[in-house]
Design goal:
alpha/beta, glycerate kinase, domain 1, Rossmann fold, 6-stranded mixed beta sheet, 40% helix
Length: 417
């Protein structure tokens, strides 16, 4: 790959992240009233908390964020496991529930929410932590969409699906950075302060659809579907009467920032959608077909052009590789483009962690497949093992940022020269 084109793609990613920095976005939406308690939850918890402590010095609160994301921010920090919860996740959830329960009716709690919160606060509902971990791992490998996974997790938890807000007598203001397609607030971090449109029956349907083994968790969900357990708070539930939720940014804002970068570079930038979902291989096929039309016929856009898209790809894991949904999408895209001249692409997770790898994502170019063959790498075999990470690691085309302390879903840019 030409170094300058790869550098431009990586620079566009960093520019988009910089323009959607969580501390600044949070500061613009904080209330004038000093809150009694601030909870910052998720991968962007630290910078969001910094905004709150700058506005309200000495405010009481707590930060819950994944391992490796903790930094000094003026509030106590609890690092817990992601994407599969552990004992620290349970301890953090119990601490938060206790603090929320102690707030008075005249108090206000500010909850700063970003993606990743589903695993970080884990309060199992009538099942063990191991049971919940097993279901989470099964869902992660199944190819289920984030909304489907969260429908299950909400109904196995005492904090998710509006239940955290229902656990306090205080007024609750939530500021949300969205990492889900369509910015569904009930899905981000499993909506701990938002009315839940899903039901126990919906959760059971997800397990059946993806053939996820659930054991005691299934028995719990069946009890709920039979009416033996209270549903999570739905729209209009009086337990959520004192709550307000504001979306402060999502994938759309990220892509708009990237478009500004490319326009300043003198390029036509087309924002396709911030809501693409589905199997990585299918999304790759769509983008490859679009690029082929541009190159061969100049439709629907004439080159040079940059195609921007976001959302969240899914991968049904069948192999033993390390994968990463963005890396898998790029490997399929490289195969679909078959070495087409003048095409480069980047795909990264904005949180800096693609799947269970150390990379945010990767880049491809016209020479990706040829270089793979020269190094004895077989992309077809590698993809069959869901091991795209190995392909890009060997080629030196990984994008490694470390934790970015934000989470605005996936970033994709395809440069057609």
């Amino acid at each position: 790959m030409a170094g300058d084109e790869r550098e431009r793609l990586v620079s566009s990613f960093h520019a988009a992240l910089g323009a959607t920095e969580p501390e600044r976005l949070t500061a613009e939406h904080l209330p004038r009233e000093r809150p009694a308690f601030v909870l910052a939850l998720g991968k962007a918890a630290v910078p969001m908390a910094r905004a709150a402590t700058a506005a309200f010095p000495g405010v009481d609160g707590l930060v819950v964020t994944p391992d490796g994301h903790g930094e000094e921010c003026g509030l106590p920090v609890r690092e817990t496991a992601h994407p599969t919860p552990d004992e620290r996740s349970v301890a953090a959830a119990e601490e938060v529930l206790e603090r929320f329960g102690a707030l008075a009716p005249g108090d206000q709690a500010v909850v700063l929410i970003s993606g990743g919160g589903s695993a970080l606060l884990c309060a199992p509902w009538e099942i063990s932590l191991e049971d919940k971990r097993a279901v989470t791992q099964g869902l992660l490998r199944s190819g289920a969409a984030i909304g489907e996974m969260n429908a299950v997790r909400k109904h196995l938890s005492r904090t998710k699906g509006g239940q955290l807000a229902a656990a306090t007598r205080a007024r609750v203001l939530s500021l949300v950075l969205s990492d889900v397609p369509g910015d569904e607030l009930a899905v981000v971090a499993s909506g701990p302060t938002v009315a839940d449109p899903s039901t126990f029956a919906d959760a059971l349907g997800v397990l059946d659809r993806y053939s996820v083994e659930a054991g005691p968790a299934r028995a719990h969900l069946e009890r709920g579907a039979a009416g033996e357990l209270d549903e999570t708070p739905g729209e209009g539930d009086e337990r959520l009467a004192g709550t307000e939720t504001r979306l402060i940014a999502g994938g759309r804002q990220l892509l708009e920032a990237a478009a500004s970068y490319w326009q300043e570079e003198g390029m036509l930038a087309v924002l396709l959608s911030d809501r693409f979902t589905g199997e990585a291989r299918e999304l790759a096929g769509f983008h490859a077909a679009l690029v082929q039309g541009i190159r061969e016929h100049g439709t629907p856009f004439a080159p040079p052009v940059v195609l921007l898209s976001g959302g969240e790809a899914a991968v049904t894991v069948r192999g033993e590789g390390r994968g990463g949904r963005n890396q898998e999408l790029l490997a399929h895209l490289a195969r679909g483009l078959a070495g087409a001249e003048g095409v480069w692409a980047i795909a990264c997770d904005t949180d800096g962690i693609d799947g269970n790898t150390e990379a945010a994502g990767a880049t491809i170019g016209p020479d990706t497949l040829a270089r793979a063959r020269d190094q004895g790498l077989d992309p077809v075999r590698i993809l069959a093992d869901n091991d795209a990470h190995r392909l890009f690691r060997e080629l030196g085309d990984l994008v490694v940022t470390g934790p970015t302390r934000t989470n605005l879903n996936d970033y994709r840019a395809i440069l057609v020269a």
